[in-house]
Design brief:
Layout lengths: L4 E4 H9 L5 E5 L3 H6 L1 E2 L3 E2 L5 H8 L5 E5 L3 H13 L5 E5 L1 H7 L4 E2 L4
Parallel strand pairs: 1-6, 2-4, 2-5, 5-6
Antiparallel strand pairs: 3-7
């Protein structure tokens, strides 16, 4: 059983709207998908580079929300981060599609 947390898109949207800045959103989809459209403020880190780049660029105690192309990719990304020593990692349930459904802020070529 995974010890990763999960959050829904509505909860994250509320947190962004209230201006709570002490967290990072990571998009592990490919660069093309990210450039096309992504959650506003999300940073793109490919799944293959996630452990290395996160270890060098993020504080271990920072709250991290992660999403991918599907639930499997999102869960894998959260597990990679957890195994690398990040303890405050939450999977965005439903990923980008759920974010779009709740009307969350987006940016990219499609916006």
């Amino acid at each position: 059983m995974s010890s990763n947390l999960a959050t829904d898109a509505h909860e994250l949207k509320s947190r962004l709207e209230w201006g709570q800045p002490a967290f990072t959103i990571i998009d592990v989809r490919d660069r093309h998908s990210y450039n096309y459209v992504h959650i506003s403020g999300a940073i793109q880190i490919p799944l293959d580079d996630l452990e290395k780049r996160a270890t060098f660029s993020l504080h271990k105690e920072r709250h991290i929300y992660v999403y991918g192309e599907n639930e499997q990719q999102t869960t894998k990304a959260a597990q990679i981060l957890h195994n690398a020593g990040f303890n405050k990692v939450a999977e965005i349930k439903g990923g980008f599609i759920a974010w779009k459904t709740v009307g969350g802020a987006m940016e990219g070529l499609a916006v």
